Amino acid sequence: MADITRRFGWRHLRSAPTAHIRHHNRGRLVHDGRGLSFWYRSLSAALSEVPVDDRELAMAFHARTSDFQDVAVQATVTYRISNPAEAADRLDFSVDPDTGSWRGAPLEQIATLLTETAQQHTLDVLARTPLAVALVDGVASVRGSVAAGLAAEPRLPATGIDVVTVRVVAIRPEAEVERALRTPAREQIQQEADRATYERRAVAVERERAIAENELASQIELARREEQLIDQRGTNARREAEEKAAADGIRTETEAARKVRLARADAEAARETGAARAEVQAAWLRVHDEAAPGTLHALAATRLAENLPRIESVTLSPDVLTGLLTRLGRPEGGAGA
Predict the structure, then answer these.
(1) pLDDT averaged over the chain?
(2) pTM, to two decimals
């Protein structure tokens, strides 16, 4: 909307670069162009403001497919007014010279024209298309049909309107139908998810089985090594016992041999000692045999005296002494000695 200021009964208009201003004074065109700025009198001026920028028109309407299913269509049409003079001649773009606001609703008229035209061509396409095909390929077909229909609409060029682009945002069925259509896909997705879960579980079970087999193989290998260790320990113990027994045998044989040698030495010594004793005894006997009886009696008395208890004094009668001396072969006079 243009900016209008008041000065002493005059009005000053300043428009934007995207607005085309047409100023008529007493039926004569005085100003015509974009971004104009001029003074005028409100009582004699007729002003029109036509926007020439690109405009976005969002539209939504219902249609019915060939299988009698209701769908909602959402689309957007981008348009612009390429010929402001024709648009101002066909539509009411006049503005109040005091406020600068539109007297009518020209943009709503353009929106109604574009919406009804687009809806007509959309209904023509969807009425011959089943719901499943409309949901899959309907966006492209509806967009092409609406673009061709708007390009062929004669009222648009006559009004100075050019359609820039047509976009179909979505074609959606009713909520119940949409849920029903989603059910097979959801079931398939759920089946795929279940299959992936089962496969993941199978992989986990397989990995657990591999781990268990590895643990079992490790335990078997450990048991085998323990068996080898036990066998080796038995072999070492048996070898140690054998070597100990052999050492004990050698030690026993050595000890026995030593004892035999000692016994032989003792026997030899005993024989030699016995022989020596026998010789001594024989010599002793030969000496006694050659000795006189008195001498033998004296020796016997001496030996007897050696084995008797100590006698401090002995009193002999003369008769006993005489008999003793007689037996010893000495004269009686030797008693005093």
Answers:
(1) 84
(2) 0.54
